[in-house]
Amino acid sequence: MWCHGKRSAIFAVAVAAAIVASAAAAVRDDLRTYIVHMSHSAMPDGFAEHGDWYASSLQSVSDSAAVLYTYDTLLHGYSARLTRAEAEALEAQPGVLLVNPETRYELHTTRTPEFLGLDGRTDALFPQSGTASDVVVGVLDTGVWPERASYDDAGFGPVPTGWKGKCEEGNDFNASACNKKLIGARFFLTGYEASKGPVDVSKESRSPRDNDGHGTHTSSTAAGSAVRGADLLGYASGTAKGMAPRARVATYKVCWVGGCFSSDILKGMEVAVADGVDVLSLSLGGGTSDYYRDSIAVGAFSAMEKGIFVSCSAGNAGPGAASLTNGAPWITTVGAGTLDRDFPAHVTLGNGKNYTGVSLYSGKQLPTTPVPFVYAGNASNSSMGALCMTGSLIPEKVAGKIVLCDRGTNARVQKGFVVKDAGGAGMVLANTAANGEELVADAHILPGSGVGEKAGNAMRTYASSDPNPTANIVFAGTKVGIQPSPVVAAFSSRGPNTVTPGVLKPDLIAPGVNILAAWSGSIGPSGIAGDNRRSSFNIISGTSMSCPHVSGLAALLRSAHQDWTPAAIRSALMTTAYTVYPNGNYNNGILDVATGRPATPLDIGAGHVDPSKAVDPGLVYDITAADYVDFLCAINYGPAQVAALAKHSTADRCSANRTYAVTALNYPSFSVTLPAAGGAEKHTRTVTNVGQPGTYKVTASAAAGGTPVSVSVEPSTLSFTKAGEKKSYTVSFAAGGKPSGTNGFGRLVWSSDHHVVASPIVVTWT
Ligand SMILES: *[C@@H]1O[C@H](CO)[C@@H](O)[C@H](O)[C@H]1NC(C)=O
Ligand SMILES: *[C@@H]1O[C@H](CO)[C@@H](O)[C@H](O)[C@H]1NC(C)=O
Ligand SMILES: *[C@@H]1O[C@H](CO)[C@@H](O)[C@H](O)[C@H]1NC(C)=O
Ligand SMILES: *[C@@H]1O[C@H](CO)[C@@H](O)[C@H](O)[C@H]1NC(C)=O
Ligand SMILES: *[C@@H]1O[C@H](CO)[C@@H](O)[C@H](O)[C@H]1NC(C)=O
User: Fold this and answer.
1) Mean of the per-residue pLDDT values for the chain?
2) CA 201 to chain centre
3) Considering only Cβ atoms within 10 Å of each terminal Cβ, which end of the chain, N or C, has fewer?
4) Any idea which of 19-33, 533-547, 570-584 has the lowest mean pLDDT?
């Protein structure tokens, strides 16, 4: 789960975790699921259907293995439980392209329309979106809570003709749960159950029902209907509305209590594509290996070939460099920034000092008189006592007190349960160096406030040294108009893209901190089992939340420009994104919470989305499926690897007669690699006019520290006489030597009387 909460620790562990063999595998005891990519055209004579060939190929290595899924469109092949030896034997067979072990992926808003400049303007900016839209956003996640008002279909016309999706029945889920807004709900768990055993229906529904909340939150963020009077426990009250409130929603539950398995994700993507979705939203990830081994990248390639826009979360592993996933160039990779909304909760100490934290606590308030204050590290026998781990606090030392707990290891809200169980009256949750000054508001179970590292250190010192420490917490409710905003969330995963450093990622950022959207009815807002509160809406944070913002905006752009490819939609979002504050404050650019300094393109890609500009970008950088195949050739993928990704492209595949270059990929950003000794690199690009006729002039510059990088663009003027016209240009970058690992940054901007088409530049010395 890529929301920035209880599961970030699990995420970190899960990627490395081997899948435990099931108990049934007494003899073939290193069983795991493999995804077998077959060469569709290599089927020998004598087989009536591909399924028969797959079964026969499987039988030749194992007489007991059964096919879990066959895949017919996103890839050709199947998944099955195999031993390592069987998988190796299979990979050596003719007609078998690749055998990939299954990987486990983890899942990684009332004010957002106003913040993005869309409030009340959606219809004006996107005329086609005002009528009941036929654009369908498919969300692969934890399912859906269909009774939420965000799925109300009032005013929607009939389900789009040609839609093939359905509402699958199951535990707690009837086919009648779908309507003209929520037009599909399916679930995929064959791979999950093969690894983990049957779903425990006492814990989660064996159906599309969302018992977690994440999927309901992401799908309603992308395309939820407007709901008046939405709030979480009184916070962030207002109208909750998805980015594309008139688009249709189809949900595909591929994530279960134990994670999201790649065989299920691939089948979910395949079915979503066949159902007829226009946009795929995946707030989950974990694939950082080569694209042909990463199921999301494999599925997304075929989706892109069919014109489907795929948006994915970058991950919550920031602020370290090279921490992102889902970096394939045919995916739109989304990082997270803040809104201009905050939930302050002031902590006042007995020494008169006052610190501002954040909280979504609602309920009985603390007495207004000073309350005894204790550091958890002084109220526990455990060496990890400061973390407020379950059962670690000594009740006599915390009873009736506000307890200062260190953030980290166990879930933030869980610590409140621990304090409450030990008799504490309140909690201050203090960051350590790991989180610095980044604050994430939580719906604490008792009066609690989250504070930054500096405030935390001052409070630790005070609580440990004052003979009678006291504190109090005052909750200030919801504040809007906070500046500066957006700032880049510290957790937002950063570039460079480790798989192909020549493609800059993330592509852009969107709101992902303290987002209000619909929630599951099976779990409280903290997502913790003991939390018996229920709320139709919840406020959570993560790139999981920023990804569906972009998915919804892509749906708006798709309805406004039905002929645009996924690359054109992404280009429009990127080249119109902003990198400096629209109000002119803080003119050094969007700030990064992690450093307090301006963010770089490695943090924010092209910048923060600006949908009102994206609808009319002037020029777009388009990319066809054949161009992406050329890119695969440029990164030296062999025939099997290319075939595993590209199913429908008839492009000339890695011909010995052609030269291929990553620098020729028509991406709306530039990632330049120079040797440490200095050197040059030439990029080629082609822009397509999607606006009125006009002349564009270029400005381009880049620098590392104070040293300029030479950037020359040829030609420096491009004139367009009609829509659809294409013009090409080259950019030559050159610079002297710099220590390996140095980065330089810059921008290349084409401007006309009506449009500004901007691309970020990153230069890396290796
Ligand atoms: C499904 O339908 C049955 C029969 O109408 C009804 O009793 C049940 O409550 C419904 N379940 C849900 C989750 O709506
Ligand atoms: C603490 O500071 C905040 C803002 O700086 C202020 O609104 C609040 O009233 C202060 N509280 C006390 C008790 O001084
Ligand atoms: C903590 O240690 C003290 C002294 O050794 C002991 O009396 C007490 O029972 C311990 N408390 C807990 C909760 O382990
Ligand atoms: C609390 O613990 C700190 C170290 O964690 C220690 O320095 C301090 O003396 C303790 N204070 C009390 C009152 O026990
Ligand atoms: C390469 O080009 C030559 C001459 O144009 C042609 O005969 C040959 O078939 C080409 N080879 C490939 C692999 O495309």
Assistant:
1) 91
2) 28
3) C
4) 19-33
Q: Is the CB of 656 under 6 A from ligand 5?
A: yes
First-residue to last-residue Cα distance in the chain: 34
Q: How many Å lie between the centroid of ligand 5 and the Cα of residue 656?
A: 8
Report how far ligand 5's centroid is from the alpha carbon of 654 (Å): 12
Catalytic residue chosen out of the listed positions 141, 264, 442, 630 = 141
Active-site position among 302, 392, 544, 551: 544
**CATH number reported for the structural domain that contains residue 754 in this entry:** 2.60.40.2310
Position in ligand 4 atom list of the atom nearest CA 378? 1
Q: Are residues 140 and 257 in the same domain?
A: yes
Ligand 3, atom 14: closest residue by C-alpha? 381
264 is catalytic: no
Q: How far is the CA of 427 from the centre of ligand 3 (A)?
A: 22
> Residue 214 catalytic?
yes
Both 357 and 392 in a single domain? yes
- Do 129 and 80 share a structural domain? no
Residue 163 placed within a domain: yes
Q: What is the pLDDT of residues 96-146, one digit of tens each?
A: 999 999 999 988 733 444 555 555 555 555 555 444 478 999 999 999 999
- CA of 455 from ligand 3 middle (Å) equals 30
| Ligand 3 shell residues, CB under 6 Å | 381, 394
**Within 10 Å of residue 484's Cβ, how many Cβ atoms?**
13
Residue 656 lies in a domain: no
Residue 378 alpha carbon to ligand 4 centre in Å: 6
Band of pLDDT at residue 607, cut at 50, 70 and 90: very high
Please determine, for residue 266, whether its predicted confidence score (pLDDT) is greater than 90: yes
pLDDT band at 503 (very low <50, low <70, confident <90, very high): very high
Atom 4 of ligand 1, nearest CA residue: 174
Task: Write down the catalytic residue from 4, 214, 217, 549.
Answer: 214
Q: How confident is the model at residue 621 (pLDDT cuts 50, 70, 90)?
A: very high
Closest ligand relative to 655 C-alpha: 5
Which ligand has the shortest distance to the CA of 375? 4
CB neighbour class for 730 (10 Å; exposed up to 12, middle 13-18, buried from 19): middle
Radius of gyration of the chain (CA): 26
Assess whether 165 and 138 both reside in one domain: yes
Which of 434, 460, 477 terminates a domain? The answer is: 477
C-alpha span between 608 and 488 (Å, rounded): 9
Ligand 3 probe mutation, 380, 383, 394, most atoms within 8 A of CB: 394
CATH code of the domain in which 49 resides: 3.30.70.80
Q: Are 108 and 2 in contact (CB under 8 A)?
A: yes
Which of 427, 463, 424 is CA-nearest to residue 442? 427
Return the ligand 4 atom nearest residue 386 CA.
5
Least confident of 16-25, 306-315, 693-702: 16-25
**618: alpha, beta or left? (left if phi > 0; alpha if psi -120 to 50):** left
| 745 in a structural domain | yes
pLDDT at position 98: 94
Whether residue 361 sits in one domain with residue 300: no
Contact 302, 292 (CB under 8 A): no
Find the CATH number of the domain harbouring 439. Answer: 3.50.30.30
Q: Which of 114, 31, 83, 97 is nearest to 640 (CA)?
A: 97
Q: Which range of residues forms the domain containing residue 734?
A: 619-623+666-765
Q: Are residues 258 and 187 in the same domain?
A: yes
Domain count, the chain: 4
Q: Is 627 a catalytic residue?
A: no
Asked if residue 421 and residue 302 are part of one domain, the reply reads no
CATH number for the domain harbouring residue 504: 3.40.50.200
Q: Which of 442, 477, 512 finishes a domain?
A: 477
Same domain, 330 and 449: no
- Token code pair at residue 660: 């291929």
Tens-digit pLDDT profile for residues 417-462: 999 999 999 999 999 988 888 888 999 999 999 999 999 999 999 9
Tokens (6 digits) for 706: 């104070």
- Whose CA is closest to 575, among 757, 352, 357, 763? 757
Asked if residue 604 is part of any domain, the answer here is yes
pLDDT at 652 over 80: no
